[in-house]
Amino acid sequence: MNYLCKRMIDQLTIERIQSAAQIEQVVSDFITLRKRGVNYVGLCPFHDDKTPSFYVSPAKNICKCFACGEGGTPVHFIMKHEQLSYVDALKYLAKKYGIEVKETELTDEQKQMQGDRESMFILNAYAQKTFTSNLFEHPEGKTVGLSYFHERGFRDDIIKKFQLGYSLEEKDAFTRQAIKSGYNSTYLEKTGLTIIGENSSAIDRFRGRVMFPVHTLSGKIVAFGGRILKNEKTAKYINSPESEIYHKSNELYGIYFARQAIVKQDRCFLVEGYTDVISMHQAGIENVVASSGTALTDGQIRLIHRLTNNVTVLYDGDTAGIKAALRGIDLLLEAGLNIKIVLLPEGEDPDSFARKQNASLFHQFIQDNENDFVRFKAGLLMEEAGNDPVKKAQTITEIVNTIAIIPEEIIRLVYIKECSLLTGVDEGTLVRAIVKKRQELFVRKKKTLYPDPEQPTEQPEPISQEMPESEAVFDFTKNRILDDNEKNILYYVIRYGEVDMAKAKHEYEKITCQTKKETEKEDPIYVIEYIVEELERDDLKFSHPIYRKILEETYQKYKEEGFRAETHFRNHIDPEISKIAADLSTDKYIESKIHSKYKIIPTEEEKLFDLVPRAVIDYKDAQLQNRIDEINRRMQESERTGDAEQSDSLLRELSDLNKKKQRIAPYRGERIVTKI
């Protein structure tokens, strides 16, 4: 079952939405656009743009920032700007253009499940409005709840922004009001708003508490947090229980209000509690979320990672609290995020500190006081260990474990050097310990993936301790270069897949008077045909599965009447394909005013007979170079292990590869399509 079947939106509805959505109308809902020629331009909403670099093309129905690279179709713009899923972005645009979202027929079980979830969301929205109304309109709410928030220094606009509220102290006041308004007691219990006690008596879970709604990334209320204000023998904070719509490990408080600021500033501040987030917003710092007093989870980390790779964790300076949170931050490192730590002045927490600052002063303090997490952790643990050799050994082991989980090898090597200086342990010893730890993690991960002992597992390749895991860096570079070359070919597939290169060349020669007579009609050479034949000739396949899919689909459809690859893929049912197509639909070059004066400057389409073969040759050369680099690496290993037979075999293969590379070298100068 594909992603669309799961979400039940039919293809006809998707096509109607894509046809109706006009990029200039969608983008202008969020940024100011100015006409510039046939296009529009404005300040990019995805980074701190000083001069307009965000271009909108009504003709192609796409947008593109020429500074940060963000852009795409109307659907992609809404996905990025509003942090919505593909399906939710389609629904957003459907609502904007008054299109009814038709869904496929659901099974009875699916209808029940969807009905339950929707009913719970509707009930939570009603509860939020009721609690907020209590806060501002009910005498008890104003006296108890609103007074508390005002004492904390929160302005009314901030209180309303976060939809804060108050649950009346009477034990079943909310439950009775909800039932009277037509809400089902079953969903009151499922959401946790009501507790059903003995004799089926109903009690409001949050009675007598100020309320903090918890929003999803798209703004739906999935749960509540409630704080007691009286000195009773009960928990200060309680939360909604886990439910069909709420899993605490997958939510971050404030993510809905922070999402755009996080993307634009490419940084997320991480704090502990509700009031920390609210106070920072009031001070003008909006890219902040809270873990709500719990250790970070994988689900919460994935949520952050969707928006940014950079996280700054704010602490109030309590050493015990910091040590308790180190494990969660290790998980951030393991996910490949860049982590900074900021210790606030003694006696301050993010809430109190933010109330004394404005945004500029706060950011200046962060800039002056942030510290890299690994260095911070190493320094903290070494200071605690002192001169005790046992504690020092334990500390070094913990530091090694932290460095070992970092996925990027270059970053690990930098930390190894720094920790060697800090701990006094030589780099070689640290490298060996980290290599051993990473192998342990690899085996553990495989066992998790394949719990059945009879299930075959792939063992890690031996890693040289002199050159630890050099393959990781090599693979990163290789994949990047291959991806660049594959994407370059794909550019011509999407823009001109159905175009006849022979005809384009002939038209160009007529215009430039390079031929004075009509030539015989030549057999067509379509861009997609040429590329597929050239790749098959050398048994080459794109490494990127989405690129392969685009290539195969173009080859299947290019002779269909009215088929245009660019239009087809920009409006593709698969959002990944349509995003790639939108990115590649942007012109590579902008014609200068000087060149536009000349009539005979060839267009890109007229030069396809040269550009397409050039792209294919470059790709073949990159493939050969990758293989040569791989053989050289394996030969170094063979020399270290003394395997003469393998060295001879690799040397013969290397010689053959170099000959092939030499044969295509002349074509990397002037290249032509020999059939034309």
Return the structural class.
alpha+beta
DSSP summary, beta strand count: 16
Main beta-sheet annotation:
5 strands, antiparallel
Shape: globular
- Counting H and I runs of at least 4 residues, what is the number of helices? 28
Radius of gyration: 31 Å
Flag low-confidence runs: 1-7, 453-478, 589-596, 670-676
The proportion of strand residues reads 5-15%
Q: Can you list the strand order of the major beta sheet?
A: 1-2-3-4-5
Approximately how much helix is present in the residues? 40-55%
Please render the helix and strand layout as text.
Elements: H1 3-7, H2 11-20, H3 23-27, E1 34-36, E2 39-42, E3 54-57, E4 62-65, E5 71-72, H4 74-82, H5 86-96, H6 108-137, H7 139-151, H8 156-161, E6 165-167, H9 173-180, H10 185-190, E7 194-196, E8 202-204, E9 209-215, E10 221-228, E11 237-239, H11 255-265, E12 268-271, H12 274-282, E13 288-290, H13 298-305, E14 310-315, H14 319-334, E15 338-343, H15 350-355, H16 359-369, E16 371-372, H17 373-385, H18 389-404, H19 409-423, H20 427-449, H21 470-496, H22 501-511, H23 527-537, H24 545-557, H25 565-570, H26 575-584, H27 608-641, H28 644-664
Parallel strand pairs: 12-13, 12-14, 14-15
Antiparallel strand pairs: 1-2, 2-3, 3-4, 4-5, 6-9, 7-8, 9-10, 10-11, 15-16
Helix pairs in contact: 4-5, 6-7, 17-18, 17-19, 18-19, 18-20, 21-24, 21-27, 23-27, 27-28
Can you describe this structure?
The protein has 676 residues and is of the alpha+beta class. Strand 4 and strand 5 form a beta hairpin. It contains 28 helices and 16 strands. The radius of gyration is 31 Å and the shape is globular. Helix 17 packs antiparallel against helix 18, helix 17 packs parallel to helix 19 and helix 27 runs antiparallel to helix 28.
